[in-house]
Amino acid sequence: MDAPEQADDGGDGPSLEGGYDPEAVESRWQRRWVDEETYAYEGDAERDPNTVYAIDTPPPTVSGSLHMGHLYGHTLQDFAARFQRMADGDVLFPFGYDDNGIASERLTEQELDIRHQDYERREFQELCREVCTEYEAEFTDKMQDLGCSIDWSSTYKTIEPRVQRISQLSFLDLYEKGREYRKKAPAIWCPECETAISQVEMEDDERGSHFNDIAFEVASDGTDRNEFVISTTRPELIPACVSVFVHPDDDENQDLVGEEARIPIFGHEVPIIADERVDMEKGSGIVMCCTFGDQKDIEWYQAHDLPLRVAIDESATMTDLAGDYEGMSTEEAREAIVEDLDEEDYLRDRWEITHAVGVHERCDTPVEFRVSKQWYVEILDHKDEYLEAGREMEWYPEKMFTRYRHWIEGLEWDWLISRQRDSGIPFPVWYCEECDHPIMADREDLPVDPLSDEPPVDACPECGHDGFEAEEDVFDTWATSSLTPLINAGWDWDADAEEFAMEKPELYPFDLRPQGHDIISFWLFHTIVKCYEHTGEVPFDATLINGHVLDENREKMSKSRGNVVAPDEVLADYPVDAVRFWAASAAVGDDFPYQEKDLRAGEKLLRKLWNASKLVDTLAPADPDEPDELEPIDRWLLAELDDAIETLTANFENYEFAKGRDRLRTFFWNTFCDDYLEIAKGREDNPSTQYALRTAHRTFLELWAPFLPHVTEEIWQAVYADGEERRVSESSSGESEPRDRLESIHTRDWPEPQGHEADLEAGETAMEVIGALRRYKSENQLPLNEPLETVSVFGPVGGFEDAIQNVMHVQNLDLLETEPEVTTEIASIDLDYSTLGPKFGSAVGDIDAGIDAGEYEIDDDGDVLRVAGEELESDLFEVERERTYSGAGEMLETDSAVVVVE
RNA sequence: GGGUUGGUGGUCUAGUCUGGUUAUGACACCUCCUUGACAUGGAGGAGGCCGGCAGUUCAAAUCUGCCCCAACCCA
Prior knowledge:
Layout lengths: L21 H14 L17 E2 L13 H21 L2 E2 L2 E3 L4 H11 L8 H24 L10 E3 L3 H16 L3 E11 L4 E3 L4 E17 L8 E6 L8 E6 L13 E3 L6 E6 L11 E5 L4 H9 L26 H14 L3 E14 L7 E10 L5 H10 L1 E3 L4 H9 L5 E2 L1 E2 L9 E4 L5 E3 L27 E3 L3 E2 L1 H5 L2 H6 L1 E4 L4 E4 L7 E7 L3 H16 L4 E7 L2 E2 L16 H7 L2 H8 L8 E2 L2 H24 L12 H22 L3 H24 L6 H18 L4 H11 L40 H20 L8 E7 L6 H7 L2 E6 L6 E10 L1 H8 L2 H10 L3 E3 L5 E4 L2 E4 L3 E9 L4 E4 L4 E4 L1
Parallel strand pairs: 1-2, 3-4, 9-11, 15-25, 24-25, 26-27, 28-29
Antiparallel strand pairs: 5-6, 5-14, 7-8, 7-10, 7-13, 9-12, 10-11, 14-16, 17-21, 18-19, 18-20, 22-23, 28-36, 30-34, 31-32, 32-33, 35-36
The chain binds one RNA strand through helix 9, strand 27, helix 15, helix 17 and helix 20.
């Protein structure tokens, strides 16, 4: 745009003509916001971190397309970002992709129908980059269709060199701090992906299997028995059997302890040992320990210093230890061994079961446990500190902290960060060929790839040898994606100052970390670990945990169930603003169903806002002067508006989007549209009403802006942007080229209460009277604009007579000084239990009974109620009277007024 | 198996921490109304013993215990 005036790009510029056309309007604004960098973070390194609002968004894993979880999560963040931007200025709302690691490798394999094993590492990495780039481009398009106020100039990919450098710096720093070690130890292993994985990547899955009762011979002669039976689901592991365990309390089998067992078929002999970790309830109560079948085997292996017998290799193929079974897969070997056991009469029984099997979450392959040399981040010794860090953050909702706490309390493994994969960030490490001493890269050289780069030394500092071996492993994805606060803040090594520094220190610690409740245990946890160890600070002030979007029957969406709703399908039928209105309906942290009718509710609201704006536009000039004195009805509206601003502000500050949304909708629809606008129709020439109308309307647009960014921008630009003083948020630090930027509603200031005071009781009563008259017309099947000849009101409605008269088409309105002629009798007595209870205690029951039975008296002036032997002062009860009106016309009652229609 | 969270009209939900006697709103349903924006609107109505059972209390959707159901996390 090139004119200082509001841009009107021809026929499809902002205008209130006709109905609201979200399809055209939304994409038009989305494009302009991106093109004009409306949401760009300005940045001011001098600013206090407490006054810059920064969000650390967990970058989506590049493994597929945008789903409802992305939509919901980002929309919630956007509510916070948009509110904060208006309320407090500069906001950083960045965006990243997590495209290094197993997930994107598997995506590449699926997409191209290839196996990574068939490619050179470089080649495969190239393919990953290509596939990811395509997915990212499509994902970005779809993200921009959501209209989130993301700063698209602050984006990153976890595989890009800048991030690789940060990730390798992080590795070096933790190594120097003594927080990392390399160790040959049993690790969880995925035979399909052929890599070690961490505890969090393993999940349980119910699988069908068999229990096999296998007879073991006793090879020594300390007992009368010749054999005993062991139940196992994994007979292929018997070549790896290194011992047999019996529980110390197991009297029946105590005779076996200290003896030797001979392994069927394979013939090797193993000791029988007592250990209380045996589950006596399971199978025969006697259990074999193999290296390794499960985690308990590892514990035993370490506790009893057992030998290592590896029968299964890294691709789940039997090793030479398995003798005749060498080269078979574990499944093949299982069947073959069972058959042979049966033939040789060792198989005593076999039956089907289903049980939980640990599988790799990325490929559903049952995991193995293998001894291998891996890098670990030590975390078990800092559990208390990480727990404390979690405690220092604000949790929205609070209850989610429990999950974090339980996760930490249950930690059993240090964090394994090396992966035997092709695509990923390499460890910046070489090893001395002679003494295995690790050589770390120099900081200034990062990022490095040891496979192609040379180590920074000519000779090993330990032994002087000059040959080195490159580390082939890459970092676990989370070793990098746990650094997002540091990536966003531009963390780097300052060589001159010899310390770490941030390019944008004002961002750190971040104000908000949003994420789903399913990844508290790893993503959030790992991020806290990394950032805390690097900076000594908790990286987030607050964390916002979003729930999951379920299908319309409240069931989890899953591809296998076929109940997945894709965001693009929804957005093809409904405006984004309507989708956002739905997204705001759930309490933060709660799972909630996707229901189409909720989107229709949002659509209705957009239409209402549009139509109300049109009406306001016909009733008052865009920018009326403020009159010296507002009339009661107008002052009442603005006082109510002040109140709404106050609650809504608090709601946004506390991430109570659902509450804010409902409060605003009710006030806008019921109070403003149904009540005030109807009244305003009869007062259009009144300067007081014109001012109130426009003030309220502008404020409504601003208050709705975080929820409904498109429709509010469209109306704002159509109605107000033109006459506004130009408010371009060019930074005061003097950017050399002042850009001609859109004065978006989204960069305006959040409304503040203006301190309007009004007789709220009179306003409330007047609305009651209007409601009563509406009910009267409805019940008498009259149109709402049917004139009423004479209406008398007894009640506090002073100052609102005109309003009542106009909106209800009352020709004569009388305010009564005294209650109209009625005969009254006591209908009921309302007790104030909250003070009555504490005062009279158990007598309350008798008082209730006495009143019900009519056994009570009230003083003539109504000051004292005598019942059940007690005397109640007037503040404890209220007498409800049944009024019978015998005068002319019909009497209507409200809570605080009596109305007579003639 | 252990833990966490939740269960409120037909549906989705507010209220539960901080107990107070007519339980909030929306959608759907029924009746009526074309009022100067909106009939994709407006006014009104019906519909719930707050998962079950005990307990604490003058008083429980709300606090306590047990049970049932669901989701999630961890074995």
